[in-house]
Design a protein that fits this description.
Elements: H1 8-16, H2 22-37, E1 50-53, H3 55-70, E2 82-86, H4 113-120, E3 124-129, H5 163-170, E4 177-181, H6 187-193, E5 196-199, E6 219-224, H7 227-237, H8 256-260, E7 272-276, H9 287-302, E8 306-310, H10 315-333, H11 352-363, H12 366-379, H13 384-408, E9 411-415, H14 431-436, H15 442-447, E10 451-458, E11 464-471, H16 476-489, H17 498-506, E12 512-513, E13 517-518
Parallel strand pairs: 2-3, 2-4, 7-8, 7-9
Antiparallel strand pairs: 1-3, 4-6, 5-6, 5-10, 9-11, 10-11, 12-13
Length: about 600
């Protein structure tokens, strides 16, 4: 059995049943990560997912957790399961550098709130994973430690800024990982690497110990192989933290039904899903991505959801609004790195002013400097009203548009990115092109709403495509429940990079896993099941007229009984509120499968 192909919950169940020990599992992942870590920087097979491996500390944690498990103590469904953390989530072990030269060798004196909760749940921290420097980038190419490669195609990027988190899970170097999302930094890498991830509601997960980029936008969240892993890890790290003034949710999420896979017949009767037609006519949207996301809409309809199209305005303003606010906050947050208190100090500095200037010039990378300059500009006295103040007003308008849409729909279904993963070096010299890659994700951060990404097909070059689900504040249970039901009916999330498929076959793992979900070949075909679930091929087609799209974004959300431009109906029947959301609580009692009840 190859432990690296298991989900985090599957591995946790084996550890609970004592079929494998936590130290054994930890060693398997550490060895795999170490083999990649030790490759030379010019080796094109090097994924470069980790910036620091905590080998001694991880083994000590695993042995301590195993003692508690052997004594009959129940900590969580993920007791003894290893995890990787993005290199801006502070831990007492190892270094935390935000992938920047200016923080080279920095060791935090405390654990971040999320890391503290993981340890309390019995998780074993393997190390820190690569990222864009200070989370500024969309490809994990701006790291001081070098680029991270996509395990699906090492000539392509894994997305960013949580690209190391995604690459580590996709390559089998960790069962799951934590990242942070400021403008799509969890969801985009999930789309590029065929993973499931969620950016939670702002304030639901502690930001204590998270090195800030944009304080009103950042949120920690999980990246994993499926929705159930995301559900259990989010339930662990969520909840109130008095050390974080932005932490507002009193109790952790409780996702018992999702964790245990209790979905009844798997259907979604009563769920109302809106698909913004104007999102599919944006410049740069590729046909393979469009087809895969509309194919997902077809599957959801076949499962009983009421799927309609509508127009969601203001998307053209999302990226510029995000950049102004995020860069303004970044210029303030990064002012603390001055070469005096900690971090890099230029050896050539002669005076205090010279130390500030040289240390920041030498310590920060190009993209970070670009955003500091932009942020300082929009906050300057001559331009504050023209840019920053106006961006705050537009942010409020975007929030009102989403609130209006989510009064009509339980969930908004949208693309994550306009393209599949692009080649290394393809956009690094064109910042505007990279920024526009976040056009579908930044609105979720501006509004503070939850957004989840999940695999929904394959596009150009056999590369993964992800769909995005957006819901009301604290509707994470509904989003993950919907993805879990989608993943019962499809097997896109089960596809692995070729190398790891071969490893699974050598290990003798059966092709059909528990639940009767067969592995598919060549880009993933949906199962044909009862209940009207349609079969789609490759990237998926919704219907014959799915290639006809809205020509421009409207200035109001429209609904009617006329056929939609995407081949989806518009609103014409009263909604049926038959689906409940899940919220509140922490863990239930332990179940037989190693999960929580």
């Amino acid at each position: 059995m190859d432990l690296r192909t298991l989900t985090a919950l599957e591995l946790g169940a084996l550890i609970k049943k004592k079929k494998v020990s936590s130290p054994e599992a930890t060693r398997v992942f550490l060895d795999a990560a170490r083999r990649d870590f030790d490759k030379s920087a010019d080796d094109e097979t090097k994924i470069n997912a980790y910036t620091d491996l905590f080998e001694a500390e991880a083994m000590a944690q695993a042995e301590a957790v195993q003692e508690r498990i052997d004594a009959g103590e129940y900590l969580s469904p993920l007791s003894g399961v290893p995890v990787a953390l993005k290199d801006l989530i502070c831990t007492k072990e190892g270094t935390t550098t935000a992938a920047s030269k200016i923080l080279g060798g920095f060791r935090a004196p405390y654990d971040a709130g999320a890391a503290e909760r993981l340890k309390g749940a019995g998780a074993v921290i393997l190390g820190k994973v690569n990222m864009d420097e200070f989370a500024m980038g969309g490809s994990t190419e701006t790291s001081h430690y070098g680029i991270t490669r996509n395990p699906w195609d090492t000539s392509r990027v894994p997305g960013g800024s949580s690209g190391g988190s995604a690459a580590a899970v996709a390559a089998g170097f960790a069962p799951y990982a934590l990242g942070s999302d400021t403008g799509g930094s969890i969801r985009q890498p999930c789309s590029f690497c065929n993973l499931t991830g969620i950016k939670p509601t702002y304030g639901s997960v502690s930001r204590y110990g998270l090195m800030a980029y944009g304080s009103s936008l950042d949120q920690i969240g999980p990246l994993a192989k499926d929705a159930r892993d995301c559900a259990v890890s989010l339930s662990i790290i969520s909840g109130r933290d008095g050390r974080d003034s932005t932490s507002v949710m009193e109790e952790p999420f409780r996702f018992c039904d999702i964790i245990h896979g209790e979905f009844g017949d798997g259907r979604m009767g009563g769920l109302k899903i809106g698909v913004p037609a104007n999102y599919f006519s944006m410049p740069g949207m590729k046909d393979d991505v469009r087809g895969a996301v509309l194919g997902a809409a077809s599957v959801l309809r076949g499962l009983g959801a009421d799927v309609e199209e509508f127009d969601l305005p203001m998307i053209d303003y999302a990226v510029p609004t995000y950049l102004i606010i995020a860069c303004a906050e970044a210029s303030s947050n990064l002012s603390r790195y001055d070469g005096v208190k900690y971090g890099y100090r230029s050896p050539g500095a002669k005076t205090i002013h010279d130390s500030f200037y040289r240390s920041r010039s030498e310590g920060f990378g190009t993209e970070v400097k670009r955003r500091i300059i932009l942020g300082s500009f929009v906050l300057s006295s001559g331009y504050f009203d023209a840019y920053y103040k106006k961006a705050l007003r537009v942010r409020g308008l975007i929030k009102s548009v989403f609130d209006e849409a989510l009064e009509k729909y339980d969930i908004i279904l949208a693309p994550v990115c306009p393209t599949v993963a692009y080649g290394i070096g393809g956009q690094i010299d064109d910042p505007l092109a990279m920024y526009l890659g976040d056009i579908y994700t930044t609105s979720v951060n501006l509004t503070g709403l939850p957004g989840a990404a999940a695999p929904c097909g394959f596009g150009e070059g056999g590369m993964p495509v992800g769909m995005q689900l957006i819901g009301k504040a604290y509707s994470e249970g509904l989003l993950l429940d919907t993805i879990a039901r989608f993943q019962l009916a499809t097997d896109y999330h089960k596809q692995a990079p070729k190398e790891h498929k071969a490893e699974r076959k050598r290990a003798g793992r059966p092709e059909t896993q528990e639940g009767g979900r067969p592995e598919t070949q060549g880009g993933g075909r949906l199962e044909t099941q009862g209940g009207g679930r349609p079969e789609t091929q490759g990237a998926g087609r919704l219907c014959e007229n799915a290639a006809v799209f809205a020509s421009e974004a409207k200035q109001s959300i429209k609904t009617s009984c006329k056929p939609g431009l995407l081949g989806l109906p518009r609103r014409c029947a009263p909604r049926n509120d038959g689906l409940s959301t899940q919220s509140g609580g922490s863990f239930c009692a332990p179940g037989e499968d190693g999960g929580a009840r």
